[in-house]
Amino acid sequence: MGAGTDRRTFLKVAAMAAAAAALTSPTTAFVRECESSVPGDDGMTWNKAPCRFCGTGCHVQVGVKDGRVMAIAGDPQADVNKGLLCVKGYHVGMALYGKDRLTEPLLRKGDGYVPISWDEAIDVWAKRVMKAPERFAIYGSGQWTIPEGFAAQKLMKGGLGNNHIDPNARLCMASAVTGFIGTYGVDEPAGCYADLDACDVLITWGNNPAEMHPVLWSRVIDRRSRGETVKIIDIGTRRTRTTLQADEYLEMLPHGDVAIALGILNRLRHHETWNKEFVSRHCNFRAHPEGKFTLKGVPIDFDTWTQRIAKYTPEYVEKLSGIPAEKIEMVAALFADRKIKITSLWCMGMNQHTMGTAINTLVHGVHLFSGHFGTPGDSPMSLTGQPSACGTVREVGTLAHALPGGRLVANETHRRQCEDFWNVPRDRIHPKPGYHTVTMWEQFTKPAAEGGDIDTIFVQVTNPGQTLPNLNHLFNDKKGLAEKFMVVSEVYPTATTRLADLILPAAMWVEKNGVYGNSERRTQQWFKMIEPPGQARDDTWMTIALAHRLMELGHPGMKDKDGNFLFRVTDENGKEVPIWKWEHYYDVNVDKALLEEYRPFTRMKHKDIAPYDEYVKARGLRWPVVQQKDGTWRETRFRFSGFDDPYVKEGQDLEFYHSTTGDGRAQIWFHDYIPPPEMPDDEYPMWLCTGRVLEHWHSGTMTRRVKPLASAMPTAYVEVHPDDARKLGVRNGELVIVESRRGATELPVWTNGRGQPPKGTIFVPFFDETRRINDVTLHLFCPVSKQPDYKKCAARIRKKGH
Amino acid sequence: MAVGGLILSLSPDLALRQSAEDCVRSDPRLEEGPRHRLRMAVVATTDTLGEGHDLCEALLAHPGIENLEVAYVAPEEERAAIVLTEGDE
Predict the structure, then answer these.
(1) Which ipTM was obtained for this model?
(2) How far B23 CA sits from the closest chain A CA (Å)?
(3) In the beta sheet, which residues pair with residue B3?
(4) Which of the residues in chain A have pLDDT under 70?
(5) Class for domain B2-85, per CATH?
(6) H-helix or E-strand containing A69?
(7) Do B74 and A11 touch (CB under 8 A)?
(8) Which residue segments constitute the domains of chain A, with CATH numbers given?
(9) A750 → closest Cβ in B42, B61, B84
(10) CA–CA distance, A444 with A486 (Å, rounded to integer)
(11) B43 vs A202, which has greater pLDDT?
(12) What is the dihedral of CA A671, A673, A676, A681, to 10 degrees?
């Protein structure tokens, strides 16, 4: 047997073992008691952590040996994934070990970088901030842990009195936030993943969970394997792997979802099949005031709402959406059926939309108007793309207009509450919202002489140089602007670090303590398991070290009312621990201290989280988590539902206790269909849609360094309909230029591939930093959520050299 | 040469399921592994990653195969070429 055959045999055995292990729960060899971290016979220490990648929040078991992550397994005790993982999850440990990890602080010098010490790095950064604290901004992320986001939030709003902090989650789920608040008066889903186990019908609205949330998708498909019937309706602009398993595929024109939702409401009203009892008890009707877009709108009566919805007949909706009238009737008939349970699922498709808030509230409205809400399986459920978009962005409120606990900077009472919680002086928090993402980057990349009033920006745990839309407008202009200074905390060189002035090497995932909050309101904790490479350090430490240096430089905001350091942490004897010094950072559990400081905020909107130590024991708990008479802590699966939510008044089956109208009711909205701001024309005749792929997570900085994932999907591509490819004279695999009015990128053509767009539409994933499709996309956004639309703009393809 | 560990979710429909099983058994590149309910572990051995990719797409297009998950991918040699172009000429 030759060496090649030996290796092949080995690989086949390994492949079969991996596949067999993933068939059901992992084998017992992978299962360890995570609480005790007892080393097993294999010399490995196992502990629990949520996966580093998407917002599903799967728990993995991490096997560590000799200071290195050696094995990853699905956690069978985790309610989210029940031992399963997707292909990214199985490889999550390998994401730590790319050859080009950043290991020392680097300061730009000319076209290159020079290594500097951490002390120098913090000093350079702090002096830059001190020059003009009001012109400093932080751009963070839904990958921030909750303590990281809370620390950044406190530094900015509670310390510097500066609200210019916004996260990349503005780009992925801001419209879901405004949709929930506009409808229920409070953010985040009422239901949970258990809805996927109970629904009879699952509608995916512009959503491809088979690739983007595969473990959740497996939960649904596994039900079919057990003989259960789950009807899947896929509403999308291109065929995907989700479509393969759909009973009905409704291929809509881009933007058609708004018309479809209006059409369903129209049919329910027309046929008198709406749920009158549910609506009369639990709902009001709402619309924007004339000529304005607002989050909370104005009341309208049912007759007015009926008049407005009347024009969205199936025939009219067919014109707007491309969906045949009888299919609109079919979906409306499902919603009219009281005997079945319907769950709607969505993610970026509905959120990255110039009518993002509108379509979100309309889908909630379809569920409310039909009464498909509030029991297991009847649920409008949004998913998130990042592991803590909910926990850190939506709950900690790391958005330019928000404060922790659902508080708002523009609300004086809210500011007072937060100032009291933080023990900082009155009027420390600035009353004016800061810049949201698009404006923040416009202001940073615009010369000061032209009004660009952000001078220094700190980018933490995200990659705007690849993920912002219309990069030539929002990011690439930074090049050559000597007066602008960008500090980037990162684990690898990225499309963002190429323009950074100061690069800070960061610890990643299990190289530090952490707490995430996933898509179903589940807060999840993990402990540091290994040391970060070289001089890489925790992101929370960076923020605290900056704050302390600012205090030393005399910034008054870095002290509380009592004259103590803003991030004062004490040991069990009450003695302050100098956590701003790296060598003392792990003398105490800073994550625990920050989470306990944050807990009182969470009660303000009944999103109560439990004490830190409860999360150490659990594979996450869904808020509100309330203490029982026996001292135990109980999570909530179905919010607003009397049978489960402790905050619903006794005797009520359902109560929207944060209703914007103050009467316990949710809002059913009307929005008129407004065409997309840019549509194909003679010059740019195709629709461009962008998105993700199974193998890579977002901008690919981690997964493209995992060889099996990079090999399986090495490069971005442009999906083209075969007829369009023929017309253009391009063949499968041929390199073409995809371009819009804003920019261009070069991509290989893929016809009849995994995703199949209709004629006139192309799709490009954004994971590949060497082929940046966001040089091409549009930066126009929803007027309420400020979330840009990455799903549709006008583009064209041309052959190279033509 | 590339080796992949796959999990196929087969159709609950008996005829479609049997057709999918026949498809797997008749393809010399595929080796059937253990089963759990309607899920089947399969090892795919192909000359290139591109061929493996195409094989996965072909399996997914089979009416008796509802889902395909990749649990393991091992290229025998690192390739810089674009997978999408392979096998297309």
Answers:
(1) 0.82
(2) 18
(3) B45, B74
(4) 1-8, 10-11, 14, 17-18, 21-42
(5) alpha beta
(6) strand A68-74
(7) yes
(8) 3-97 (3.30.200.210), 106-168+389-511+528-558 (3.40.50.740), 174-383 (3.40.228.10), 686-799 (2.40.40.20)
(9) B84
(10) 9
(11) A202
(12) -170
